[in-house]
Each structure stands twice: as C-alpha cells, then as structure tokens.
Amino acid sequence: MLLATTLTLEDKILNLLSVISNNLFFRYYDLTGAWGIPILEDNPGKKANLWASKWNMALFHWPELPKQLIIENFTIRNEPEIEYKNHFDYYFKEPSFDLYSNSTITFPDSIHKVLDSYFSKTIELQSILDTALSFSVSAVELMQHKKTLSILASFTSIETMVNLEFQDFKPEQCEACGQLKYKVHQKYLDYFLKYIGSSNHNKQKFSAYYKLRSKIVHTGQRLKTENIYSEFTKDEEEKEFLNQVEILQLGKMAIVQWLLRNDNQNMERK
To answer: Cβ(226)–Cβ(148) under 8 Å?
Structure first.
C-alpha cells in the first residue's frame, strides 16, 4: 500500500514536470518482472556459482525510500540553478520533447505559479487535472512511433480541460430539432481563444486542428508519415511534423494556461 501511494505521488510529479517543461520525465513502468540472478556482492568469486535465479521486479527501490520521499522541508540544493525562460517563447519557440540528446533541461519562468496553482486545488479538481496531464504525457510518449494516436491523446487532454471549463454551462436546446445550440467545436474554440489568444490567425488555426481531429476520429484518417512506405514530399513530411508538435504543445498549454488563470486568487473571485 505504501509503495503504491509512493508511486502514485511520483507519477503525479513526473507528469506535472513533463507537461510544464519541454522534457519527458519518467520512470520504468514494467513491474511484471523477469527471471534473473540478484548480484548480492561486488566480487562474489566462486560463491556466485551457488546463486539461483529469482523472480525480479524492474523497480528501483530500497527499504528506506518511502520515508525519504516524505516532504518535511526544502531540499538543500548543490547543483547549478536551472535556467528559466520566457513563458510563451519557451513553449512556441523552443519545443524539443527530448528529441535532441544535446538539449539542456530548462523551465518556463511561470513554473512556480503553475505548481502553486495545481497544489492549491481540491483533491477532486486535481483528479481531473491528473487525467488531462496523463493524456498529454501519453501524447509525447507516442509521438515518434504512434503519431496519429499521439495527436488523439493530446486532443483528449484538451477536451478534458474543455469539459472542466464548461462543466456548469447549460446550453440552450433548439425547439425545432432538439439539438444543443452550443456545439462541441465551439466550446473547444472558445477555450483556446480565451486561454491562448483571440486573434483571427489563432481562430483559423484552432479550427483547422479541430477539423483534423474530426477526420481522425470519424473517418479513420492517419498521418501520411506514419506509414513506412507512404509516398510524400519533404514539405508534406515537415508540415505534418510541425502540426504534430504544435498540437502537442497546445495540449500542454491547455493545462498550463488554465492553471495560471485559475490560481487561488482567481478561483476565490469566482
């Protein structure tokens, strides 16, 4: 039970860091185990011949770990300070998703406000945010090998936040046909225009991305570059990649911007 609680907290923190930053923070999730011989000594010599195989869990752990993860005070830091960069430039000018091995971990200058906002929320609200965070992280994890699913995961994260934003909204019903007057597409669009920016350029771009999402969901369309032997031009390949990167970043921003705009002070005013 203590181990499960520890891993749940660890996942929560890793997901937060992965969504707030341009890096992927993770642990190894395969706990099914494998057969192996535990190395009980550094230089066992002939004694190693007496060792037998044991069932091993792929888990980095030691008995004192749960107690060491209890937060009692601030950690005394010895490593250099991580560089903080301008909020919007960080997300839209320098996305990396750990695709480049020589990149250095940096954070947006808004990270402390985002974290404060998240941890100030109720358990129920954190649970909804955790769902959005999890889908956004899955989008990054899948982006190289399951590109279409990666985009869908990002849109699912976005829709989780859209549902949260409009949870108390009751749309009018058309008297003639019975359909709701406020469509899902409009809620999605209004959410981004509110939290990302309300320019005409943004409106066109957000609508185009929602149409792409609809084609994937309703017609089974896949990204061209996902098929190994597909014929596509270099320009098409680059365009799909840039669209995917931007959709994944929008998935992150859907959460980050909501947390910035709905901090303790703003929530109290509501």
So the answer is: yes
- The SS3 call for residue 134 is helix
The rounded distance, in Å, linking the Cα atoms of 36 and 162 is 47
Work out the burial of residue 153: count CB atoms within 10 Å of its CB; fewer than 13 is exposed, 13-18 middle, 19 or more buried.
buried
DSSP calls for 12-31:
HHHHHHHHHSSS--------
**Which of 101-105, 125-129, 206-210 shows the highest mean pLDDT?**
125-129
Half-sphere exposure of 4 (CA within 13 A, CB side): 1
Cβ contact 247:151 at 8 Å? yes
pTM of the predicted model as reported, rounded to 2 decimal places? 0.74
Greatest Cα-to-Cα distance within the chain, rounded to the nearest angstrom: 86
pLDDT single digits (tens) 43-56: 888 888 888 998 88
Of 10-19, 122-131, 170-179, 228-237, least confident by mean pLDDT is 170-179
Does the pLDDT of residue 189 top 50, yes or no?
Answer: yes
The count of other CB atoms within 10 Å of the CB of residue 59 is 14
Buried-exposed string 97-118: b where 16+ CB fall within 10 A, e elsewhere: beeeeeeeebbbebbeebeebb
Helix (H, G, I), strand (E, B) or coil at 109: coil
Q: For the range 193-199, what are the long-range contacts, defined as Cβ-Cβ under 8 Å and sequence gap of 24 or more?
A: 195/253, 195/254, 195/257, 195/258, 195/261, 196/250, 196/253, 196/257
Separation CA 6–CA 19 (nearest Å):
20
CA 116/CA 96 separation, integer angstroms: 25
